[in-house]
Structure formats: structure tokens, C-alpha cells
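stage 2 :: seqdesign
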């Protein structure tokens, strides 16, 4: 819980507020391959990734297509499912053993009502998440695979070392073979 508490302290909450917020979360460990959200189920939780990595993906014609990913110190949820309480259109799965702190939607709403500063934080978190999704969507259209890989190397160098090649390739929208060629060109 120290990492979660530290996150909220760093976000500008007083120690008392940060403690109240952190205590509203529950610990959950996901094994590699375990789902946080399954397609067609309604997502009831917002999670904070203490350590690990989660892959958002959809299945098209029997093939997994990664749509987003999240690692340490990030929040995770199937946004539309969580906000609207409708079935998720995507899966969210642990790529490696992942330590999460989760909060139910109703508890999150209660925090917003009890702590005006948390409501402002939550709005900023949603805005940031929307911007990340937008950037990811535009990168997929505007950057070639090598440029996307180089950007990932710059922004998340630890992640590249931690996750298996097939997941990294899926995140970049390419085959593992193509990724190997890109890596050999860069070295």
C-alpha cells in the first residue's frame, strides 16, 4: 500500500486525505494470463498497478489485437464499461504477475462526494486517460512500426525489457518477426 499512498501524496493530497483514499482500495494479485476484465462482462473496478503490466486487447477473426497497455503506477479500467456500466468490448489481461489496488465504482463515487479534492483529481485522471488513448490512436495511424518502437523505448524503456516479445509486437501492431528486424536495425 506504500506505493499507492505515495502516489496520492505526490498528487498533492494531504497525508490524511491520501490515507483515506488509499484505505478505500483493496489489494488484488493477478497471475500471468489472468484477466482483470473479460469482454462482455461489466467492469466494476478501477485498478492502480503497483507492479506489473496489463494488455488491453480485442479478438478479430480469432486473432488478438492489442489496443492499449498499462504498467507500473498507472490506473487501469475498461473505461466505457466502468463509466456506463455496460458490457466491456475489450479484454484486459496480466502479461506478467501483477499487483493491483482496486476500488469499486460505488466506493469511488463516495470518495468523490466526501473529498472535493478527490473529485478534481478523478476528473484530471479521466482527462489524462482520454489524452493517452488519443495519442495511442494517432500514433497507430501516423507513425510506422519502427517509430512506435523508438517512442516506446524513449517513454517506457523498462517495459521493453520486462514483457515478452509477442506481447510487445502485438502492442506495436506487428509480428514478432518484424519486431526482431526493427530491433536489429536499431542496434
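stage 2 :: out
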Amino acid at each position: 500500500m506504500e506505493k499507492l499512498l505515495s502516489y496520492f501524496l505526490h498528487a498533492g493530497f494531504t497525508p490524511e486525505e491520501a490515507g483515506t483514499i488509499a484505505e478505500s482500495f483493496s489489494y488484488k494479485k493477478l497471475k500471468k494470463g489472468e484477466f482483470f476484465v473479460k469482454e462482455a462482462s461489466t467492469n466494476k473496478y478501477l485498478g492502480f498497478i503497483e507492479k506489473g503490466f496489463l494488455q488491453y486487447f480485442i479478438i478479430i477473426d480469432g486473432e488478438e489485437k492489442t489496443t492499449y497497455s498499462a504498467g507500473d503506477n498507472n490506473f487501469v479500467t475498461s473505461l466505457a464499461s466502468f463509466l456506463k456500466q455496460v458490457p466491456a468490448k475489450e479484454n484486459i489481461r496480466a502479461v506478467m504477475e501483477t499487483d493491483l489496488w482496486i476500488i469499486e465504482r460505488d466506493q469511488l463515487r463516495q470518495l468523490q462526494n466526501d473529498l472535493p479534492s478527490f473529485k478534481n483529481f478523478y476528473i484530471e485522471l479521466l482527462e489524462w486517460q482520454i489524452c493517452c488513448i488519443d495519442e495511442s490512436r494517432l500514433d497507430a495511424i501516423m507513425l510506422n512500426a519502427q517509430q512506435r518502437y523508438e517512442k516506446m523505448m524513449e517513454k517506457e524503456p523498462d517495459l521493453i525489457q520486462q514483457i515478452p516479445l509477442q506481447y510487445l509486437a502485438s502492442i506495436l501492431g506487428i509480428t514478432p518477426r518484424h519486431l526482431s528486424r526493427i530491433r536489429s536495425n536499431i542496434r
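stage 3 :: structure notes
- The mean pLDDT is 92.
- The first helix runs from residue 2 to 10.
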